Amino acid sequence: MPKPRKHDGVVYPRKDGKILWMRYRDRNGEPRRESTRTEDWREANRVLRERLQARDGNLLEVIRKGEALTFGEWVDCFLEKYSKPPIRSAKTHEANVRCANHLKAEFVGKKLVEITADAIEQYLGDRIKQRVRIRIKGGGYREKGATKSSTVHQEYRVLRRMLNVAVRKKLLAANPCKGVEFPVAVTGLFRPHYVTWSEQERIESHGPEYLRNVVRIITETGLRVYKELTPMRREQVDLQNAVVWIPDSKTPSGRAEVPLTPVAVEAFQAQMTMAANSPFLFPSDRNPHRHQTSFKRVWSGTLRRARIPYFRLYDLRSTYATRLSAGGVADEWVTQMLRQGDAQVFKKYSQMKLRMWREALEKLNRQAGEMRPVAAQPMSTVRVQ
After folding, report:
1. Is residue 354 scored above 70 in pLDDT?
2. Beta strands 257-259; 243-245: pairing state
3. DSSP string for residues in 1-42
4. For residue 41, how many other CB atoms are within 10 A of its CB?
């Protein structure tokens, strides 16, 4: 019977330097010797305890990989492999690069495993206190107001995404962002506005005809505004069969045939008449051979004339989902009809037939949110004999 080991590991000094080293055995019983990178005896023993915990949790190789990789190297790898099209859209990649530049400037020189929750919270707090700097043509910078909390929150979301991928690639044992508390309450972030039917009628009456068609198409089909609707061509629309084909979308599940309601068919027909001989449904005013790229100015002006507080045009897509839910459509079906890339939902409903989709569209409730509350009826008094 072999002699039992007295210690799982030990910290010891070497003759050739002041840095303390540690010796322990891995899960296979093989001895390992590593530097603790510190001269402090307590800190060295803390590093040894972390090594032993990682060994017992079968995370030792994960931590060793993360220690060999700097944060800047992982950011460059993430932007190259997991951020560029077609993995993500061009605008998403542009936002990731912008956020990554700020993150790399803060955590430059640090190893990936050295990014802790406290370090992230310190970065977020310092970033919010900074002022916006704009590069001018003559050289130098010009300072503006304080950095918006929504801008810093976007950088935090990009960092969280990067570290989540690192966890899946077994470069980190856990994402430190899970222990981060955002220092400022972010107001108005990802709070979709539901458009009531009365608001929609006011918007349509105060805007141009093509914007009315845009509003009706999105609220009846849930199409993405600038990725699917504005570049749409005539050949993608089949009014006879009441479907449109989406060849390119934000997610692979977005490429599909989308059935149309009678209201959407009427809007598409009116827009095709307005587009005349252009191959696009929404041709550009400056160049008829290209499509319109933005509705922001006409949208904000229409809301101002209708005396409706500003909300994003993209929120019409959320209105479509809300009306489906109010009509009794199951959440899994709503997710499918939005053509979202939720893997958990697609495991349960791998395919959806066009006929079943049309049956769900018949339940679309355009009066959602405008039902009058039913007054409670008083209970009749019963005499007890």
Report:
1. no
2. antiparallel
3. -PPPPS-SEEEEE-TT-SSEEEEEE-TTS-EEEEE-S-S-HH
4. 12
